[in-house]
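Appendix B, Record 12. Input sequence as logged:
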Amino acid sequence: MPGGKTIHELKVGDSAQITRTITERDVELFAHAIGDHNPIHTDQAYAEKTLFKGRIAHGALSIGLLSAILGNILPGHGTIYLSHEIRFLAPVRIGDTLTVRVEVMEILPEKNRVRFRTTCINQDGKEVVDGMAWAMPPQKE
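Logged structural output:
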């Protein structure tokens, strides 16, 4: 498996994105994988009585999609995800199509650290997640 981009191959402004529709199965598998069976995610009747008026996807599912970009695309394989400051701006619902994006904002070569802006935007153009993440790109062996 090829390695991702090293710190010296990145530049401010580099970006990558994926688009993914959140399915019923995604929410079910995610709930099972992490053990979070909060009825806001899993029980339509319950969720209809909340301020969201229906089920929403786990916030961590959106973060997982951002992690997938960092670990697979930019910087890519071998990247170590260090931290993430994130704001959930709107709910993500089953059936929403998210455009998930990371962009290089700052590079610290002496520490092998990169700061990324992270966003998720739904099919209506509404930003639903905004944040800043730090990661360590892979080093050449």
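The CA atoms of residues 61 and 80 lie 18 Å apart.
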